[in-house]
């Protein structure tokens, strides 16, 4: 009984080899690619390959944006964000006097008199 059991196990262990030996030989595309003639089983074509360059451009754009943001952050505020050290003077008394003369509120004699009083 034990001998029959050993023979049965030995025959069953050799069965996959016998079935594999009868299998049809793979074609060249199956042998080299494993997924058939098409790349990665996508059905062929070049259209999926556009994602590589697109993601590369996207990655480089994000990298440049991060570098610009870092330089701006480390560089401090722009020169135009601080108020200037000296504000431009507002209208001087002479400017006001000239405006009044131009509008006709005062005549030439009064303009000359007040201009001498201002010291100019």
From TrEMBL:
InterPro entries given in the database record: SHOCT (IPR018649)
Pfam families per UniProt: SHOCT (PF09851)
Keyword NAD set for record: no
Top-level taxonomic group: Bacteria
Domain SHOCT: 92-118
Transmembrane segment boundaries: 45-71
Protein keywords: Membrane, Signal, Transmembrane, Transmembrane helix
Signal peptide from the UniProt entry: 1-21
UniProt key word Transmembrane: yes
Coiled-coil residues: none
Protein name per the record: SHOCT domain-containing protein
Organism: Bradyrhizobium nanningense
